């Protein structure tokens, strides 16, 4: 087989066979196919697309390019949840203990990564003592015992995707549905998920800005998962404004605790109940979505969800005392109110720009080397549709620097107030199961 023939084939809009897809991924992983040929191939895929079979086979070829995690020693159906990324998305912190409280095993492998705030691990490390450096057998023991544990990314998972994603990043080929869908799904499958629950964000703060694009990505991922024997579903949820109130690491841990107690922001709570219902249902712990939702509400009101969070923190060295006393979390030196400059209704809170403001305070990493300040961030007081009076607080800025004029300017510019009443955005647009 010659790569050049395969490039021409895809360029001309033809289907690649199973063997050809394997040849490409194996060759690119072992460096026998050079970047320049792979660049041409990704551009051909960008323009010509891939059908369902090709997408599933590309995904599995990437899964097989490296190690895969074997979670078979964990009892029950391992349902993984993945979000395509948003601003102040606190769902993972809430969903883990929430579904674990119902006996759904949560074996989470997580990373740090770049972004407006840290990843799940960074956020959890805001709890004093909490660590994810545990051995694999300890990880498995903890999930069997407590139904939840988090471990740092280890091993050589999907090396093909790592190389390919970096190449796409510099060749204008990130934005291709088959390439994005196979990239995300390969990582979930390699990490050992039996079933996958996807939260595809849509809106200004999301990777996919329009509902049509988000739906196409969601459907592509759901079809890949189901075609390779992993029950997969997707929710399309709003990311025009940040989710919940808190954007920042310790601040989001506190928000997760509030939500697990039943006192969380309405949108975050609702999204967690929606995603959680699907996870519980996929795990076979409820016969219907309604039954799953009732059970979730029950563990919130009877305190079991919060108790599961405490046990989880303690089992990985964290101080469970933060749950009853969130003041034990890292606190910023300055808490500054941002006051509304006019009367009206909040019409826009541009999610990605608010995220940038949080990152400028130090909540996230701009480069791999950046050090995160776990205490800092933003807590919204108002969301889209809320009425506001001049002088009222729009949000609080938690900062370790006193001088934050630049941050304030970004926030003012990206929180818009209109004279007319504005409806709150739709939170869950669609639930896609096939
Ligand atoms: N996230 C991924 O993991 N892969 C992509 O291709 C795009 C977003
Ligand atoms: Ca939040």
From TrEMBL:
PROSITE patterns registered for this protein in UniProt: THYMID_PHOSPHORYLASE
EC number: 2.4.2.2
Subunit structure: Homodimer.
InterPro entries listed in its UniProt record: Glycosyl_Trfase_fam3 (IPR000312), Glycosyl_Trfase_fam3_N_dom (IPR017459), Glycosyl_Trfase_fam3_N_dom_sf (IPR036320), Nuc_phospho_transferase (IPR035902), PYNP-like_C_sf (IPR036566), PYNP_C (IPR013102), Pyrmidine_PPas_bac/euk (IPR018090), Pyrmidine_PPase_CS (IPR017872)
Gene Ontology terms for molecular function: 1,4-alpha-oligoglucan phosphorylase activity; metal ion binding; thymidine phosphorylase activity
The keyword Phosphoprotein belongs to this UniProt entry's keyword annotation: no
Catalytic function, reaction form: 2'-deoxyuridine + phosphate = 2-deoxy-alpha-D-ribose 1-phosphate + uracil; uridine + phosphate = alpha-D-ribose 1-phosphate + uracil; thymidine + phosphate = 2-deoxy-alpha-D-ribose 1-phosphate + thymine
Domain Pyrimidine nucleoside phosphorylase C-terminal span(s) in chain numbering: 345-418
Gene Ontology cellular-component annotations: cytosol
Family of this protein: Belongs to the thymidine/pyrimidine-nucleoside phosphorylase family.
Protein name: Pyrimidine-nucleoside phosphorylase
Entry's Gene Ontology BP terms: pyrimidine nucleobase metabolic process; pyrimidine nucleoside metabolic process
Cofactor(s) listed: K(+)
